[in-house]
Amino acid sequence: MEPRQNDPKHPQDGGRPISQGVRIGHVHLKVANIERALGFYCGVLGFELVVRVGNEAAFISAGGYHHHIGLNTWESRGGSPPAPGTTGLYHLAILYPTRAELSDALRRVIDAGIQLDGASDHGVSEALYLRDPDENGVELCWDRPRDKWPRLSDGRLQMFTRALDLQSLLAEASETQKEPRMDTKYGKRTAD
């Protein structure tokens, strides 16, 4: 039986769309160890610690927001990542405002010795894929301006997956991004 349009059991088939002003506010991750998670998200990626609740939870952000990422051990202290073949989070995406900022993120990942799972040009965006210490998928990306998004002849959006030229991305880094960053082992500010 084909689903009917506007059927509440099949909302993808119609109905009123969500407001265009809606945004994903934050993601909250279950982690095994708060210190290790903070070493990655603050130490490597450069997020700022906003609030910490002992060894149970931490809330981190970019640019002074209350939190973009929550980390907790409430149900996961000392735990293992989910086994392959199970449901759950595929990845969280961290959107950088410019290609130069994504280039800086790539440099941070390389400097920390973290291996990439992949690097893709999707036409609308460029993305780096990696894993945090708890094996959560992390996408670091930037969106091209909307007027540069590839479109089909009928105007529909055309997305694809092609290899991302990492050398070209690294060349994008500007000198203005040579700011002190957190040392991943000790959580201290260091100069590049």
Shape: globular
Number of strands: 11
CATH class of the largest domain: Alpha Beta
Please, what is the CATH homologous superfamily of the largest domain? 2,3-Dihydroxybiphenyl 1,2-Dioxygenase, domain 1
Estimate the helix proportion, in percent: 10-25%
Q: What is the ordering of alpha helices and beta strands? A: EHEEEEHEEEEHEE
User: Biggest sheet: strands side by side, in what order?
Assistant: 5-8-7-6-9
The CATH architecture classification of the largest domain is Roll
- Helix and strand composition category: alpha+beta
User: How many separate structural domains?
Assistant: 2
Cα-to-Cα separation, first versus last residue: 62 Å
* Mean pLDDT score: 87
The largest sheet, given as strand count, sense and whether it forms a barrel, is: 5 strands, mixed
Determine the strand fraction and express it as a percent band: 25-35%
Query: Within the CATH hierarchy, at the fold level, what is the topology of the largest domain?
Result: 2,3-Dihydroxybiphenyl 1,2-Dioxygenase, domain 1
Low-confidence stretches: 179-192
Q: How many DSSP helices?
A: 3
Radius of gyration of CA atoms, rounded to a whole number: 19 Å
